[in-house]
């Protein structure tokens, strides 16, 4: 165990009603590292998050967290009721944060003037950024992000992953991120764990994308998407998915393909 380790799951197994959900799963998240867990529906990703958040105890194995670890959690989505009107700022202050802290968090996630926006009127991309701001208000050592691009359009997903990488770089926090496929997160992830109740394969994104276990689980379509993302995604998007800068390279002159296959 190094001083940089924030979270370690070691051969953890979980079962519900006699059905194995996780089988001897291990992963480690270090400070300054983005670890992404991918897998199909029912792979056990949500259960793994619960282990990381100390909401679930493994039947076998162990989960270690650095003493005093501060965790910021971003859920998949937020359900709001029109009967309970809230501004973005008021929502973010429900946990006791100061107005100054909320303003700073909104600036960091790219919503500097949206504090007075009714929460219910926020777009999908804006709402996910609000949830990320809420997680950042905890000044976390570890960010746990459950499908952070839920409800975001295809181009906006790239902008969100770029923002997550910028947050990691700025705060040097660890990031444990859950996703359903590899090609969207490839350029912004240090280590990928491919999960289907057990760890099918793991490593650098390109390594995982070429692993036979990944190909067997996701099929050639996702493998082609990974290759396309790697070779042609050399531009950046703003909150609304528009290209904001593009390098003058042969790949950059290729037609923009934000659907990646």
Short note summarizing the structure:
The protein has eight helices and eleven strands.
CATH homologous superfamily title of the domain at 5-70 and 140-253: P-loop containing nucleotide triphosphate hydrolases
Largest sheet: 6 strands, mixed
- Average pLDDT number: 83
**How would you classify the quaternary structure?**
single chain
**Order of strands in the sheet with the most strands?**
5-6-7-3-8-9
> Beta fraction of the residues?
25-35%
CATH architecture classification of the domain at 5-70 and 140-253: 3-Layer(aba) Sandwich
Distance between the termini: 40 Å
CATH domain topology of the domain at 5-70 and 140-253: Rossmann fold
The value of Rg in angstroms is: 19 Å
Shape: globular
CATH class of the domain at 5-70 and 140-253: Alpha Beta
Number of helices: 8
Q: Give the topology string: H per helix, E per strand.
A: EEEHEEHHHEHEEEHHHEE
> Could you estimate the helical fraction of the residues in percent?
25-40%
How many strands appear in the DSSP assignment?
11
Low-confidence stretches: 221-261
Helix/strand structural class:
alpha/beta
């Amino acid at each position: 165990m190094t001083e940089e380790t924030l979270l370690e799951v070691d051969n953890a197994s979980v079962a519900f009603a006699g059905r194995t959900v996780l089988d001897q799963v291990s992963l480690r998240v270090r400070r300054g590292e983005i670890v992404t867990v991918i897998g199909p529906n029912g792979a056990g990703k949500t259960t793994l998050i619960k282990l990381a958040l100390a909401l679930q105890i493994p039947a076998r194995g162990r989960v270690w967290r650095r003493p005093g670890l501060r965790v910021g959690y971003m859920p998949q989505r937020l359900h709001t009721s029109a009967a309970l009107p809230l501004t973005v700022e008021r929502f973010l202050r429900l946990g006791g944060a100061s107005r100054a802290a909320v303003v700073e968090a909104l600036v960091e996630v790219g919503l500097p003037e949206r504090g007075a926006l009714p929460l219910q009127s926020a777009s999908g991309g804006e709402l996910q950024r609000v949830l990320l701001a809420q997680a950042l208000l905890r000044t976390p050592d570890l960010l746990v992000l459950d499908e952070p691009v839920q409800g975001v359009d295809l181009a906006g997903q790239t902008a969100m992953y770029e923002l997550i990488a910028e947050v990691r770089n700025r705060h040097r926090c660890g990031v444990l991120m859950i996703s359903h496929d590899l090609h969207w997160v490839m350029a912004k992830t240090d280590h990928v764990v491919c999960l289907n109740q057990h760890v099918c394969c793991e490593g650098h994104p390109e390594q995982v994308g070429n692993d036979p276990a990944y190909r067997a689980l996701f099929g050639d379509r996702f493998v082609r998407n990974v290759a396309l993302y790697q070779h042609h995604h050399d531009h950046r998007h703003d909150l609304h998915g528009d290209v904001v800068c593009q390098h003058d390279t042969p790949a950059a002159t290729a037609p923009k393909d934000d659907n990646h296959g």
